[in-house]
Amino acid sequence: xxxxxxxxxxxxxxxxxxxxxCDRNKNGGxxxxxxxxxxxxxxxxxxxxxxxxxxxLHTFYMCGNHGDPILAPDMLEICEYIRxxxxxxxxxxxxxxxxxxxxxxxxxxxxxxxxxxxVDGLQDTNHLYRQGVRWQNVEENMAAFCDAGGRAKWxxxxxxxxxHQVEQARIFSKILGVDEFIIKKSGRYVYSADLKKRDQHxxxxxxxxxxxxxxxxxxxxxxxxxxxxxxxxxxxxxxxLDNFIDVxxxxxxxxxKKEIYVSAEGLVFPCCWLAGQVYKWWRxxxxxxxxxxxxxxxGFESININITPLEEIVNGKFFKSIENxxxxxxxxxxxxKTCGNKCNKGWDPFMAQWK
Length: 355
Ligand code: SF4
Ligand code: SF4
Fold this sequence. Notes:
By secondary structure, this protein is α/β, with parallel strands linked by helices. It is built from 15 helices and ten strands. The strands form two sheets. The chain has an eight-stranded mixed β-sheet, with helices on both faces. Helix 4 (102-109) links the parallel strand 3 and strand 4. One iron/sulfur cluster is lined by residues 15, 17-19, 22, 24, 67-68, 96.
């Protein structure tokens, strides 16, 4: 496999929020049945990641598929350990910002390189997507973090109901002391279940009652170009996105970035996208190609960093068969659909989020 320069780490599956397009829950409602509220402890982390290994990395970022890093019980201690092992490492945290006390944020500010706050609106709109996040906590925590010398970014997903607030939020971010304000144009209007485009998404609450109808912003400058125009061109040419994915050239982002992903349960994958496929709440776990590939190549223990050394995992059979699948034409023939979808040459709603 490839050499590793950066890690994407999910410290926990816990989160106080229920965002409707997040796999943690079913459209913002019931929690994903495959989650066990796992968190990696400080002791597990130290055992899994040696000082020598951490010294060799340039970046370590904490985000994940199903949880918010700040909810991990040992989060601060883990960050301190990483910083002690590598004083120069680019240590990043991506969070909704709505949990923990200001004192905790003041401590974090002295350790990490930056925190990226995911805040999609202002006081009257942020909770429409970030369901369950209290605005007052976000504001106090961002201010405390910045006042304590922490470097912050604010990422704002634009919807139709908050597009009029983008400039106001940008100004407010400056007042708080945020270093960078980033507009995110969501690429999640093509659904992973059927690869079909839908321009809206109905959010629900924990009881399944309809809440906000999420729709794309009207202003073209806030819309994702891959969803808006490239998707249609691909479908015109290939008939369906599935047909395109069968034959598209794969340009693996994991290889380019020299990155691996480690989940809260300790499972190691080349990226969060492959990991996420195993936990899709709308199908049995065993129905994913990724699940089958794990079972065919040693099982879950063979890719669990709490059981198997990291080097053995990335040089092992599972990683090798992922790599082999990139040269296969056709998902039915063994190409991983996720790789064809996320890392093809020609259609990239992920990168288009930032353009
Ligand atoms: S804050 Fe993050 S982990 Fe929590 S529900 Fe929202 S997207 Fe998912
Ligand atoms: S989707 Fe496949 S090719 Fe892309 S980063 Fe993940 S493992 Fe690599």
